[in-house]
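Hallway conversation turned thread

IA: we were arguing at lunch whether anyone had actually written out CBS domain-containing protein end to end. Turns out nobody had. So, for the record, here is the sequence (353 residues) and right after it the structure tokens. Reply here if something looks off.
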Amino acid sequence: MSHCWQKTLISETSTIKQALEIINSEALRVAVVVDHNQKLLGMVTDGDIRRGLLNDLLLTDSVAKVMNLNPITALQYTSKEQLVRLMDQKQILSVPLLNRDGQVVGLETLHSALSKEKYRNPVFIMAGGFGTRLRPLTDNCPKPMLKIGDKPILETVIRSFIKAGFSDFYISTHYMPEQIHQHFGDGSDLGVSISYVHEEMPLGTGGALGLLPEDMPRDLPLIMINGDVLTKVDFQRLLSFHLENDADATMCVREYDYQIPYGVINGDGNRITSMVEKPIQRFFVNAGIYVLSPRIIHSVEKNQKIDMPTLLESHMEERQKVLMFPIHEYWLDIGRMDDFKQAQIDIHTLGLD
């Protein structure tokens, strides 16, 4: 997503000339018309203005007279893959991104969506767990090295980041680290850099941050992910969200539904006030993917044992800049045997193998 999309926003009281100036001065080549609450009203392209002028409109007329009132839009967390498909189908070059209230929160262009940006941001993969719930498969193999399709889970995770433009990887190990080292080495076979940090004893889900080397890029946010997660989340959009919101930490969350298998009764004393048959409760759950700014990373001391919730809660109290990023793309935490079997089915239809 373009970082200068805000410059394309204009009000419906703006003139056609003002819209034309934006179109000519900004690389995005469109003007996005919004109301005072930043809700989308329409879009204007060079073609819209030309047609208006041919119909005897003046440059001093309101942009509302030429704007497209029903532009193609997408929700803000739509993946680049889906956006490219949408723009190709509709033969358009840009799509405004809206939140669920209809407010414009971004603008994706076909050029930007197709570009292969390169990121210096480190990717830190947690691969030290015992995988006890997947025994006996993990008796002689660390869980991230179990094969899904024809590749270890960890290789699929790394390749998904490479595809998104990331090349600087750090892997945290503990259980049977030699198998991971032997398979990936320094990453040169994959055309990337891979370094390792080893937990002599389990340090919790956040403690390995304190083991990261001093020569790691320390001025950039880091993406952290559990080594047993298969996902098609758009890492580029996740990183953009984190940066645009000046977040200390961004946690990916997944909506989880739980249906109570009974009728729920509410009462006041012995009087029933309402009855709900088998209600569904919805929660956001931790998806095991984070973006962490340097202030979070530097706050973890070497060999400090700490879990991510505890670490993030301590920073929530400081700046209230710990945010959540709902993911709607495919996501599977391979924690149980049923998950492992499901991953074997899913891998061939996801484009991750």
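OS: looked through it. The first strand starts at residue 9 and ends at 11.
IA: good, adding that to the notes. DSSP finds eleven helices and 19 strands in the chain.
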